[in-house]
Structure formats: C-alpha cells, structure tokens
Amino acid sequence: MSSVLNRITAPADLRWLTAEELALLAAEIRDLLVQTISRTGGHLGPNLGAVELTIALHRVFDSPTEPILWDVGHQAYVHKILTGRAERFGTLRQTGGISGYPNRAESPHDWIENSHASTALSYADGLAKALAVRQERRPVVAVVGDGALTGGLCWEALNNIAAADRPVIIVVNDNGRSYSPTIGGFAEQLAALRLRPGYEKVLGQVKETLPRVPVVGPPLYEAMHGVKRGLKEMIAPQGMFEDLGLKYLGPVDGHDLACLEHALTLARGFDGPVIVHAVTRKGFGYAPAENDEADQLHQWRPIDPATGRALPRTGRTWTSVFSEELVGLGELRDDVVAITAAMCEPTGLTAFQQRFPERAYDVGIAEQHAVASAAGLASGGLHPVVAVYATFLNRAFDQVLMDVALHRLPVTFVLDRAGITGDDGPSHNGVWDLAVLGVVPGIKIAAPRDEASLRVQFREAVACSDGPTVIRFPKTPLGEDVPAVRRVGGVDVLAEPGPDQPVDVLVVAVGAMAADLLDAVEAVRQAGFSVRVVDPGWATPVDPTLIDLARDASLVVTAEDGVVAGGAGARVAQALGAAAVDVPVRHLGVPVEFPCHGKVSDVRAWAGLAVPDLGRRIVEWAVAVVPDTEDSASSPESAAPRRRDARA
Q: How many CA atoms lie within 13 A of 228 on its CB side?
C-alpha cells in the first residue's frame, strides 16, 4: 500500500494527518477502490463519492464507541478501509474474504450489517434509546443516502428521533441518485437544497472576516446573523426538516474535507438530533464514473479500470429475456403497466419505460408503496407488472397478502435474482420467496427453467385475471434451453426410464435447478436406480398431475434454490399427504441459515446443491428407501426399504 494509507490501522490515526496528507490519502483510497472493484465487482460509484465524507466522520467521531451506522451498506467500503481492513480489501466479495456490506463478524466498527435501504435511522433511534436507558450519553451517527430517504421507514424513524433530545446525527449523503436518479417530491426538495452547495463555506468566510472590519463590522455581522434564517429559507428551504424539530446544517460540499469536519463538529456539539446535509457526486475523482450518466458505476460487474467500461457479458441473461417479453406484451395490451422501486435498469424495465413512458412507474426505494400502488392500478382495470429483486419483495409481504391477494387482484410480480446470488452477501440472496409467498391464498408462482419457459410462463402470468402471479428467475447466466421429452397435464417430463421400467426415483426440479438435476441424476442411474425428472413449471399450486406421477415412484426428491422449510418441496409433500399418497419425500434446497457471501458456485456447494452433491444425496436416499427389486418380486413382505447392490 501507499505511504499514507499503510499508516492507517485504526480511525484514530486519521487525526494526526496534515491537510496535505489527507488529500493524498483520499487519492490513494480512490485508487485502491478502482483497482480492487474493477476486478471483484462491487459498488464503485457510491464509494468514490463518499471518500471525504467517511474520512471526516472518522476524524470527528470516535468509532466504535460512538457508533456510525451505514444505510445502505454498499457505501461503506471506505469505512472498511479506514477501520483496519485495507490489507484485506483485495478479497472484497470473494469467498472467505471481506463482505461487500458492513459485517459484525469482521469488525467492532460495523454495528449493523444491512444492505436493505431505509433502516439505519430506526437502528440509530433504538441504539440511542438503549444508551439513554444505560445512562450513557454519546452520539449515534446514521449515514443515509438521498435515495433511501424515499423509503417510508426513514420518515417513521425521523418522527421519533425528532421527538426526543438524544444526540442522533443524521448525515444525508445526497448525490441525487439511488440506483437511478432519485425521484419524487422529496428529491425535488433536496434539489432545491443543492442550489447553493457552497453556502456554508461563504457564510464561514463572512463570519471570520466581517467582525474584524473597524466600527461597522461587528454590528453589521449581528444584523446579518439576524436575517440568517430568512436567507437560508430563501436559498436553502430546510424547513421540511426543521418542521419536524430537527436542527439542519447544510448543504455542505461533500468533497471539501474542512467544510465537512466543521459541520460534523457543530452537529456533535449540539448534543441533540441534527441533520447534516452533504452534497456529493457519485463516482467523484474517477472520470469514467463521473461521466457515466446511466448509473455512475453503481454496478456489481467487473470493469476495465482504464475506461470504466463493464467487461462484456457472455450469453443472454434472464433479465434481458423478460425485458423483451414485457415490451412485446406492452405492444399487444395497453392495460399492461410496469412498476419498480428505484431499480429500473437492473430489473429490465428500461426498454419498456422508453417505449411506454406513460405506463412505467419508478416509485423510489419504497417496495411497500410499489405493491400497494400496484393494487390500486389493478383495481382501476390495469395489469401491473412489479419488477424487483426477490430479496426486496420480502419488505412488502403485508401488501402482497392484504392489498393484492385479499382482493384477488391481477398483479404479476417478477422476481429477479431469485435463489442464491452469492457475492452480495446474506441479505441479497433471494432464497425466501418460495417459502414466504407460498402461504398467500390464491397466489400462483412460476419458476422457469430456461428462456423458452420464461417467455411462456410470463405470458401465462399476465393472462391471469383472478389473483396475483409470480415469476422468479436467478442471477446466474441463462444457459441452453432444456427441452421436455413429453408433457403430462401441466408438468414437463425432462427425463425418464424406458416404457416398461418402474420409476425408482421421481425428481421434481423447480426452475433453473433443472439443468443441474439432469446432470446429477446420471450418478443415480449409475448406482442402478431408474429416475424420472419432471419440471412442474408452476411451483404453486401443486399440479394434480405431479401427485399422479408420484404414485408410480418409490421415492420423491424435490429440488429448489430456496430454503427447504416451507418451500416448494414442502408443499409437494403436503399435497401428497392430503391425497393419501404414502411415498417417502426428501428435499434438496438451501438450509434455513443465512448464506455467507462468495461465488455462487461456492455458496451452492455450502448448501449441498453442487451437481456432485445432488447426485450423491439422491443415491444415499434411494439406497435407504427404494426396495430391492429382486427381493420384492420373490417375497412381498420383504419389500421394505433396504440397501441393495448397484445394478448396471
């Protein structure tokens, strides 16, 4: 590492640096960010914009004694570098390396490990209350982005923070963007506040020089101080914060370290709830990011560090196929509308938005509002398509249940990044949707296995008019189509024994697991068991054909890239039990634990979902459950499950 950065082992080391050394440190951190993230992928733009802000925070506040909470955690890379993790930063988002978000197991400086927006203010409110109960009065700092402030949870927290006198300092890192430019009325208010980002600097200069002017200086300064509030209301209408009872400081140039330290020091000394409004630029100091108006390198993909361009993808993506189908449906049906929560480009809605701008709605980081608004759109005779990451729909479960399903409204939820997502860590894995949504009455959930089935099932979903539908697909690359050998009812048969052979094992492959299951069952055949592999297409409700197919098998194995507790496999077992089909059922899926971050292949291996593990586990269950054919034929009473020799 460099001559300044290698001297920083803890935040306290920052307080001994000169202004020149601090400027050099900021440049070195930016270089480390670019060189590392260009290789590992990650959130480059937000962190480039937060360098000076993070340095100032750690120079003014005594972390971890004075907690600094990050919302959203993807702007905390600089925080990691300054809190003893610079030497390991090259392992960012890698298996066994440091996480892409704050992580309590990594450092005492990481108080919370969140990557869902709009939560840090509530954490800060609760933490400040806990300190008060323990009769400890020290500041709690929450760093929140302007995009996160579009979430209602932030305003619920602000209402409580403002009602008390606890020292909660809210730093608004305002760069005008979340994933895409921040939208809505609040964004317009912040835009007004950004009109004069040099205001505090100018005021400071006046305060320093005017009192020294002979005779007229001191009284003139006092007069100016008297109109300060009126002046600030005129050029920086911070009243929306002060009306809540929050002291407001700013707007402050978020790349001027001296200004930032001054504002944060004032906030610290106020000893009560304060808003510090810092205006930053995403990607600051790295021209490719600053000039990228699309997302300013807020992406996870690796880039060419010289140009900032993302390295080319290989093959088509699930998201792009959905995007094409949505535009196609939009051409055919003028009642189809699209909604997303600050993720238009990542969820594939950009093409639809460009083609039908009057029918596309980005509501900001507000998933609950997105779903409830979709219910209103559906009540008005439209068919909304709500596109979000699978992990983020968790936040709007109540709206799915009570506002959409209860009213049997035709809303289609498209869940991108379903299943194990890997690098982004525990909170971004979309492994809960099959279990959580499965309890919603009347909901229909499709898990396409390939491009062809995605196209068909998405159109079937939008054709439904009697309740909510869900389409889920993974982050992993879109592979070759997996053709069916035949179709029985609503179930695709992907592989099966010869016409006169009994079925030892029925494998129910949910969604994109199908290709891996077809590879895995070769080991089962080599062990001497006959196998039928089926794709139910629609994971919920359970197709009656699947129950009929299970009657012919000695063992049923379900496989899904979601948690096994309450997932698609559990519903298959319940349906078989309700139909009095007494066949053993075993489940392959994600353990009910939070998966660690790492490459998707590594996390799948941890979950026992790598191809060799799938085959081995099915063989073990078959050996224990499937009766020996020869013994069964000679003696019916000996047909109980037993171990048998492998057959060719």
A: 16
Q: Which residue is catalytic, options 30, 93, 359, 395?
A: 395
Mean pLDDT of 486-494: 95
Residues 6+ apart with CB under 8 A from 569: 508, 510, 558, 559, 560, 585, 587, 588, 589
Phi, then psi, of 169 in degrees rounded to 5 = -110, 120
| Close Cβ partners of 27 (under 8 Å, ≥ 6 residues apart) | 285
Q: At 513, which helix (H) or strand (E)?
A: helix 513-526
Strand partners, 558: 508, 587
- Residue whose C-alpha is closest to residue 644's, from 629, 306, 56: 629
Catalytic residue of the set 200, 325, 367, 451 = 367
- Length of the chain counted residue by residue: 648
Q: Is 261 an active-site residue?
A: no
Q: Identify whether the C-beta of residue 118 lies closer than 8 Å to the C-beta of residue 152.
A: yes
Find the catalytic residue in 268, 282, 525, 532. 282
Catalytic residue list contains 367? yes
DSSP 315: S
Cis link prior to 72 (omega < 30° from 0)? yes
CA distance 3 to 18: 14
3-class DSSP state for residue 388? Answer: strand
pLDDT of residue 92: 87
**Which domains are seen in the chain, by residue range?**
5-195+236-290 (3.40.50.970), 318-472 (3.40.50.970), 488-638 (3.40.50.920)
Of the candidates 586, 594, 546, the one whose C-alpha atom is nearest the C-alpha of residue 570 is 586
Cα–Cα–Cα angle for 71, 401, 458, rounded to 5 degrees: 90
Distance CA 60, CA 530 (A): 68
Residue entry with tokens 């379903």: 418
With CA atoms as reference, report the closest residue to 76 among 459, 528, 85, 320.
85
* Highest mean pLDDT (candidates 143-152, 215-224, 364-373): 364-373
- 281: annotated active-site residue: no
For 157-180, what is each residue's pLDDT tens digit? 999 999 888 999 999 998 865 444
Q: What average pLDDT does this structure show over 430-454?
A: 96
Q: Do the strands 585-590 and 538-540 form a parallel or antiparallel pair, or are they unpaired?
A: unpaired
Tell me the pTM: 0.81
Q: How far is CA 460 from CA 112, 410, 456, 526, 647, in A?
A: 41, 12, 6, 38, 43
Residue 43 phi/psi, 5-degree rounding, is -95, 90
Query: Helices in 71-138 by DSSP H: which ranges?
Result: 77-80, 120-133
CA–CA gap between residue 566 and residue 589 (Å, rounded): 11
CA dihedral 51, 90, 1, 30 (to 10 degrees): -20
Query: Distance between CA atoms of 75 and 276, rounded to whole angstroms?
Result: 17
Hey, what's the torsion of the CAs at 148, 150, 153, 154, to 10 degrees? Answer: 70
